[in-house]
Design a protein that fits this description.
homodimer, 203 residues, alpha/beta, TIM Barrel, 9 helices, 8 strands, globular
Amino acid sequence: MDVLALTFQAIPADIPVILDAKRGDVPNTSAAYADALFDSFHADAATVAPYVGLDSIEPFTTGSRYALVLARTSNPGAGDFQDLEVAGRPLYERVVERCVERFGADRCGFVVGATYPDEARRLRALAPDRLFLMPGVGSQGGDVGIALRAGMDANGGGVLPSASRSVLYASRGDDFEKAAGDAARVLSEAANAARAAATAGSR
Amino acid sequence: MDVLALTFQAIPADIPVILDAKRGDVPNTSAAYADALFDSFHADAATVAPYVGLDSIEPFTTGSRYALVLARTSNPGAGDFQDLEVAGRPLYERVVERCVERFGADRCGFVVGATYPDEARRLRALAPDRLFLMPGVGSQGGDVGIALRAGMDANGGGVLPSASRSVLYASRGDDFEKAAGDAARVLSEAANAARAAATAGSR
C-alpha cells in the first residue's frame, strides 16, 4: 500500500490514473472497493471483472467514477469462458452489450487485449463510442500498431494501449529509470506513428 | 493491510482462513496475487473470479493452495452473466465443469450463494466431491438450513455456510464482541441442527 501511495504521489496531476484492480464483488463489498479506489486513492478509473453481475459493476460507475470492464482479456486462456457461445455469439460480446445498455459512455469502457485484434474489431462495432484499454502490448506479445488499428474508433481515437512488464522491467540495473523511460517513449512513438498512418489511410 | 494482519494474528492456528479476495488476473499477475494471499498472509484458501480464464485460476491451486472459484454468487444480479445459456445450460455450470476437469478436489471448490438453493442443488450433482462455500446467510437473506440441505454432499458435509454482516455488525455498541459471538453461535447451532435433521432424514 505504501508503494502504491508513493507511486500516486509521483504521478503529475494532469496524468489520469487507472487502477488495474479487476475488482467485482457483491454490491455492498463492491461499493467498499470502489470507495477505496476512487475516494481514498483518487483513481480516475478502475478495471472491473463482470462475472458477479451488473450490480457488482455499478458502484464503479457512479458520480465521476469510470469503470473499464473486462471484455476480452489479453491472456492465453481468455477464451476459456469469454468465448463461450451465448445465443450464437461469444460471451464477451454479451458482456459489452449489457454494460453499454446499463452504463453511460462517460462512465464505462472496456478492457480488450491488444493480443486479440479480431475480437477488438468486433467489439468496436458493438461499442463505437467507448474507450478501450488495450493491455498486452510488449511482454504479452501484442503489437501496438495492429492493436490500435483494430480498436480505434471512427475518429482514430478511443484506444489506450498499455504495456506493463516491458516498461517496468526494461532494466534490472542502475539504469532502470532511463531504460523504462526509453521503452515508454519508443512505444508511444510507435503508437502515434501507427495511428497517424491508419487515420491518413482512411481519409 | 494492518487491520488484516491483526485479524490474522487473532485467529487461532487450528482455524482455517479463507481470504474472500475474488482475484483473477492474467497469469503473471494472478501468480503475484496468489503469492501475496498464500505466502505472505498464509491463507488456507482464497476465492477466485473465473472470467479471465483457467490460467488465471491456476496459480491459486498449486502446492497446498486451495481456490474457491465463484460459480453462482449470492447477489441479486448474479444471473446477469452467470445464468446465460451456453449449449443449453447456464454458464455457471460450465465454469464448474471446466474447473472440475482441470483442478483436483483437494485444490478447488466453489462459491455458491446460500441465497440460491436451486442452483446449489444443480451444482452439487455436477461436483459431488467439492467443497461449497455458501455466503449470503444473514444480511443477504439466505437461510442456513435451506442452503445446507441444497448444498450438502452425500455424506452430509461439503458445505461451509458463511455470514458476514449479520455477525460483524451484530452491534455497533460497546457489546459488539459479545453480540458478534452470540450471532455466530446462533448461526452455528442452526446450521448443525439443520444438518443433523437432514442427515437423519436421509437414513
